Amino acid sequence: MNANSGYARPLIGVVTVLYQSDGVLEDFFASLGVQQHVNLKLYVIDNSATESGSITSRRMADQAGIDTQIVFNNANVGVARGNNQGIKMALADGCDYVLLANNDVEFRDPMTIAKLLAPVAAGTTLATFPKIMYHGTNRIWCAGGSISRLKAITAHVGDGDEDTGQFDDELFSEYAPTCFMMLDRSVFERVGMMDEKYFVYYDDTDFVWRMNHADIHLLYVPVSQVGHKVSFSTGGDETPFSLFYCTRNRIYFSRKNLGFPYSVIAAGYSLIAMLAKCPRFTPAGRKSVIRGIVAGMRLA
């Protein structure tokens, strides 16, 4: 049964944002193409400089028989805006659920999405996420998480641990990244869209923070599993690009969401922590950190 079988079933809008993603698309589409017992429509938002990813996506979607809409932005407008584009298209098309999905994830279990959908469809919760593994390993990347109000950072449960079944209980979690997250359409009515000021990084933290404050809680569904090719499109955690946006957005998140005195404590901690790490960065990286601090204090 392919991804588009069973049209009587509720429609899931799968939203993925491309940025220099050509190298991961084959696994992503192969994963989608084998999904069973779900009715999918894929929304590909391409932020790349060239149309190669859009062209590849069209070819692979046609081969897999996946109903797909592709938008080529001809510019990097950011992950947050790209997700918003896809979400709005899915809602306009009447999708009952939205699956936010990085294209650097792979899942060959044909029931991955169906298992993730089941608690939402049953009314147990409005949002779910799977057990997320480091791609090609038996090591966990995320089995839940938390948001620190003192440091404005997120922590992943089980990060780096070998999976021996120790995180196989279904439970609610304060945080999970949006790299693979199933959401009922009503979530966006209550929480709104992604904050596009983040561009990349912390946009998911901000969104999940607002979900929690709207009394919408994330359910961890370990029977659904994906492998994540961490930091594929950004090149890693210590590139000048990543250092600028992580620094800027951490401070912006603190100032926007945490409230006094946590906002002051978290912003101050972020500033000291990043300055302390600067000696190990390249000159370009150190400059990016300083720029990020200034931009984070100014962003409103």
Distinctive features:
300 residues; disordered N terminus; ten-stranded mixed β-sheet; single chain; globular; alpha/beta
Briefly say what this structure is.
The protein is of the alpha/beta class. Helix content is 38%, strand content 21%.
Provide structural commentary:
The protein is of the alpha/beta class. It folds into two domains: 218 residues, Alpha-Beta Complex (Spore Coat Polysaccharide Biosynthesis Protein SpsA, Chain A), CATH 3.90.550.60; 59 residues, no CATH class. Strands 1, 2, 3, 4, 5, 6, 7, 10, 11 and 12 form a ten-stranded mixed β-sheet that branches. A hairpin with a 5-residue loop joins strand 6 and strand 7. The longest helix is centred in the last third of the chain and has 19 residues. The N and C termini lie far apart (48 Å).
Topology of this protein?
Layout: E1 11-18, H1 25-33, E2 39-46, H2 52-64, E3 68-72, H3 79-92, E4 97-101, E5 105-106, H4 112-121, E6 127-134, E7 140-142, E8 145-147, E9 154-156, E10 171-173, E11 180-184, H5 186-191, H6 203-213, E12 218-228, H7 240-258, H8 262-277, H9 283-298
Parallel strand pairs: 1-2, 1-4, 2-3, 6-12
Antiparallel strand pairs: 4-11, 5-12, 6-7, 6-11, 8-9, 10-12
Helix pairs in contact: 1-2, 7-8, 7-9
CATH hierarchy, class of the largest domain = Alpha Beta
Shape: globular
Distance between the termini: 48 Å
CATH architecture of the largest domain: Alpha-Beta Complex
What is the radius of gyration?
19 Å
Approximate helicity band:
25-40%
Number of strand elements? 12
Main sheet overview = 10 strands, mixed
What count of structural domains? 2
